[in-house]
């Protein structure tokens, strides 16, 4: 006599229902994890594209200065002005720091421009 033959009908039904629920939970978990990965990859791609736009603005102005169309200071000023207006994902923005770190340009808090960020805590 098998294990299932010895079980009562209500117990068998409970086992079937529990197995079905477990299957649904496993499938839902796998689907949610897959969906999370897709959303994360899309967000990463979108951020990469917006950063490439900002980078291309800088490259363009550097090339203009290198070719003598205007001075390097003018190129940096034009690049700062262009990047200051960029927004992505609604209200997200770009800021520029140097390698010190010192704030070169902050579009939301211009009072930070030129400030030393060494002691700043995020």
Give the mean pLDDT. 93
CA-based gyration radius: 29 Å
Give the proportion of residues in helices. Answer: 55-70%
**Binned strand content:** 5-15%
Query: What is the topology, as strand order, of the major beta sheet?
Result: 1-2
Tell me the number of strands: 4
Q: How far apart, in Å, are the first and last alpha carbons?
A: 68 Å
N-to-C order of helices and strands: HHHEEEE
Shape: rod-shaped
Question: Main β-sheet, in a few words?
Answer: 2 strands, antiparallel
Number of helices: 3
Given the helix and strand composition, which structural class is it? mainly alpha
Instruction: Pick out the low-confidence regions.
Output: none
List the helices and strands and how they pair.
Layout: H1 3-6, H2 9-66, H3 72-84, E1 87-88, E2 92-93, E3 96-97, E4 103-105
Antiparallel strand pairs: 1-2, 3-4
Walkthrough of the structure:
The chain starts with a helix and ends in a 17-residue tail after the last strand. The chain has helices spanning 3-6, 9-66, 72-84; strands at residues 87-88, 92-93, 96-97, 103-105. The mean pLDDT is 93. The protein is mainly alpha-helical and 122 residues long. Helix 2 (9-66) packs antiparallel against helix 3. Strands 1-2 form a two-stranded antiparallel ribbon. A two-stranded antiparallel ribbon has the order 3-4.
